[in-house]
Design goal:
Blueprint lengths: L1 H34 L5 H18 L1 H11 L21 H19 L9 H16 L7 H18 L7 H16 L10
């Protein structure tokens, strides 16, 4: 009876190994055909995104670190899923961030992970975000208004900080002489410019 059980186990092990080999061969043939087709980026994209998903599901911290390190290069390795006109693309950042949120919330729900205590640093980051959010309405003008404001501030420095900048007194004297010359009056004779 013992030899019969071990023989059956060997046969099952052989069948399992044959099925795994057949599946690996089939997947290799499908990928080989796909890589030689005109749409060769799709299998590369699916393989890459699947690898990220598996790493995130196995270990969320390692998945997040892998994602953060490699996210700037994802478009060069065809890891972004382009969905066509009018539909937002599924970039690697969107896939990984969404999956990480789901995995972390699921682990919190089942008690596998605890919510960390809030610290002073967390409060400072939150206050910074509130401050940046409060300044958003003032920044709707865009880059042109930001550059214009910077130029105005540079011009206003002579009025805000007269004499404190190196060479500012000579500049003020030269500007006074130029104004006096244009108006036809000398500044030392009591004329107002």
């Amino acid at each position: 009876m013992h030899t019969l059980t071990s023989a059956a186990n060997r046969i099952l092990l052989l069948i399992r190994n044959l099925v795994i080999a057949a599946l690996a061969t089939a997947v290799g043939l499908v990928f080989g055909h796909a890589f030689t087709s005109p749409k060769w980026t799709w299998p590369l994209t699916l393989t890459g995104v699947t690898a990220y998903v598996l790493v995130i599901l196995a270990n969320p911290l390692a998945g997040m670190l892998l994602w953060i390190v490699t996210a700037p290069f994802s478009r060069f390795f065809y890891f972004d899923i382009i969905l066509g006109r009018g539909v937002p693309d599924l970039t690697l950042t969107r896939v990984c961030a969404g999956l990480l949120v789901v995995v972390v919330l699921a682990q919190l729900a089942v008690g596998k992970m605890r919510v960390p205590r809030l610290t002073f640093l967390d409060a400072a980051v939150l206050a910074t975000l509130i401050g940046v959010g409060a300044s958003l309405p003032a920044s709707y003008g865009g880059l042109r208004d930001a550059v214009t404001s910077w130029r105005r501030l540079r011009r206003a420095r002579h009025y805000l900080l007269p004499g404190s900048l190196p060479g500012a007194q000579q500049t003020q004297r030269r500007n006074g002489r130029q104004r006096a010359h244009r108006s036809g009056c000398h500044p030392h004779h009591g004329c107002r410019s």
